[in-house]
Amino acid sequence: MRAGRFFRASLSILALVFLLPIPSAAFASELRCAVCGEAITGKYLEQEGQAYHEGCYAKMKAPRCAVCSEPILGPRVEVDGKIYHAQCYREKVQPHCAVCGRPIEGTYLVEEGKSYHPACHRTRAEKCAICGEPLKGSYLADPWGNPFHARHGRKYLCPFCNRVMADSTTGGSVVSSANGMRVCRLCDGRGVDRKGRAESLLERTRLRLFDTFPVSADTFTFDLVSKAKLASLLPPGRQQGMELGITLERKARLGRSESIRNDMFLLSGLPDWLFQAVAAHELAHVWQHLQGLEDLPPDKSEGSAELASYLILKLNGSQEARIKLETMERSEDPSYGTGLRRALEVSMNGQAVDRLHGALRGEVGWPDRR
Predict the structure, then answer these.
(1) Is 236 left (phi over 0), alpha (psi -120 to 50) or beta?
(2) Which of 95, 97, 107, 314 has the most neighbouring CB atoms within 10 Å?
(3) Rounded to two decimals, what is the model's pTM?
(4) Within 13 A of 305's CA, how many CA atoms are on the CB side?
(5) pLDDT given at position 238
(6) Rounded to an integer, what distance in angstroms lies between the CA atom of residue 116 and that of residue 118?
(7) Alpha carbon distance 73, 342 (integer Å)
C-alpha cells in the first residue's frame, strides 16, 4: 500500500448579509435599494452599508454557490477561493473519512484516492476491523477502506452498504425484522419498512425520474415484501440472486381493449438511500412495459434500469451513494454492469434522453463495446 499524503481542510464560515425588519415610516422614505433605486418598504438586506430588496440582491449582487449555482443569501462557506451554501459544502464538497464516514475538518490523510482522519487511518492500518488482531501480509478491505483478514471472507460485508459488519465500523449486525436478512446496524436503523414512508420516497423518486422515464402514479401498484416473498415472485427458471425488487406485468383483455397492470414489489427494510435507487430501477421497468418494450435483451432492459438507479444515486450525494455508484461502474455483470456502461454511453451520462429512448426502441444504435 502506498504511503499517504497529509492535507488540511480549512474553511471559513461567513455571514455578511443581514435581513433587517421593516424600517420605520420616517426612515422608509429615505431608504432605497442600491440595485434598482426604488424605495424599500418591507424587509431588506444590508451589506457593507448598502440596502437591497431581497430579490434585487439575489439577482444582481449575491454570490453564487459553486455547487448548485443558486444565490447565497445567508451563511456561506469559503474554501480555496470558492463560495458555497453551508449545506452544499457539507454534502457535496467536504471530504469524508473512508473509515468512519464522518466529515473531515483540519488535517487529514489521502491514500489511494480516499481521505482519512489520522486516528482512523492508524486504526485501519494496524488492525483487522472484524477480529481486532494485527494485520500481517495481504488482507482484504471493504469499499469504505475497512481492512480485514482474508480468512473471514466476504460474508461479513453488509449486503446493502458493503461495509464490514463489525462493532468498530457499523456497531455490528442484526437480522432484519423487515426482510429476514443479516444487515449492518447502520442500514437497519435507516430501513424503510412502513408503507407510508415507502409511498413518500417512491413518489419523490418517480418525480425526480420523470424527465427520463415518465411514469404516471396510476400505472402501477407497489408493496413491501420480505426476502423470501421476493424470491417466490421470481419467474419460473430465473435463478435467485441479490434481487431487491421486481416488477411484474399483467395484461388483461376485455373485448378489443387491453389493459396493462404493473405490480412492483420492493424489499422491505432497505435503507432509505438504497430504497430510492431500487425504486428507480423498477420504475424504469414500468416505463419499458408501458412502451411495449417487454422483450428487450437483458443488457438493454437491465442496463437502462440501472441507469435510472445511477441517476437517483448521483442526486443523493451521500457517501453510501458514492460507493454504490463506484460498485455499479465496475460491475462485470453482462446485463447490469456492461448494460449500464452502454446506457451511459448512448445517453451521454443520462443527458440525452431522446437518444436513450431511441436506442431502446431500435432507432439508434446500441453500443457493442464494454
Answers:
(1) beta
(2) 97
(3) 0.67
(4) 25
(5) 67
(6) 6
(7) 42
pLDDT tens by residue, 13-60: 444 444 555 555 444 457 888 999 888 887 788 877 788 888 898 888
pLDDT of 189 reads 96
d(CA 277, CA 313): 6
Helix 272-290 to helix 319-330 angle, to the nearest 10 degrees?
50
Query: HEC states along the chain?
Result: CCCCEEEEECCEEECCCEEECCCCHHHHCCCECCCCCCECCCCEEEECCEEECHHHHHHHHCCECCCCCCECCCCEEEECCEEEEHHHHHHHHCCECCCCCCECCEEEEEECCEEECHHHHHHHHHECCCCCCECCCCCEECCCCCEECHHHCHHHECCCCCCECCCCCCCCEEECCCCCCEEEHHHHHCEECCHHHHHHHHHHHHHHCCCCCCCCHHHEEEEEECHHHHHHCCCCCCCCCCCCEEEEEEEEEECCEEEEEEEEEEECCEEHHHHHHHHHHHHHHHHHHHCCCCCCCHHHHHHHHHHHHHHHHHHHCCHHHHHHHHHHHHCCCCCCHHHHHHHHHHCCCCCCHHHHHHHHCCCCCCCCCC
Cell, residue 235: 419467474
φ, ψ at 36 (rounded to 5°): -95, -15
Distance in angstroms (rounded) separating the CA atoms of residues 108 and 95: 9
Low pLDDT (below 70) residues in the chain: 1-29, 123-125, 237-241, 253-255, 258, 369-370
Are the beta carbons of 181 and 175 closer than 8 angstroms?
A: yes
How buried is residue 15: exposed, middle or buried, by Cβ count under 10 Å (0-12/13-18/19+)?
exposed
**pLDDT at site 187:** 97
Phi (first) and psi of residue 301, to 5 degrees: -65, -55
Written as one letter, the residue type at 145 is G
pLDDT at 58: 85
Cα distance between residue 149 and residue 137, in whole Å: 9
